[in-house]
């Protein structure tokens, strides 16, 4: 007899996954796993992208997810179907930056994986607002029997109001989002391409827009150019593959502004929950108030 469908979910590719019972052993891309945790779902395992260490998950991406008891399947070339299935997941939750392509997995690996286990893909790309991305994760969590506490949404609403009040005056603090790339250059974020930065812009934060040129998401420039933009607040990429600002030369171009800049840690692959977003907005608000 064919198993009765009790659980189903239509992902952002329009693909419907079904099961005879709600999945309980979820293997997730690290960003998705941390987001589901804030909704009350503890993934059984997580995996990273080609940027990540194959042996240790990137702490910048794991949010408040406790890693004890959550297996790390690895990242990049280390991920094959056997490795991904080794923890016996009954659902894989992945992300995409458009086109339905699974981020962090080789296309052939992703294709063969779906022959063994349901795969749900959530689009986290620039075509969506952060609210829309968060809503999709919330829908998935509800289908699995969990939901983020209402207090998290209340906290987010409060900090949004705080930011609007801080940016209501005529003079806007210059805020620059960047990813340090060694001693010689930095990748300056184009705010319109990053859902979390677009939220800041909508709340009145004065984000610095890099000059037009190559690079859809980033404008890669020397540190002298980054320093010449004279930001008062820097949102600095804290993922493991980005250079830490305190590792830059003390006599380089960045040193000319480093002493007067307030630095806010920024993860360009944010945890897409109200709780995590409120925490980030609060850090930005603190920097603007300082």
UniProtKB/TrEMBL annotation:
Keyword field: Signal, Transport
Gene3D superfamilies: Nitrogenase molybdenum iron protein domain
InterPro entries, sorted: Bact_iron-sidero_bind
The name this protein goes by in its record: ABC transporter substrate-binding protein
Source organism of this protein record: Streptomyces poriferorum
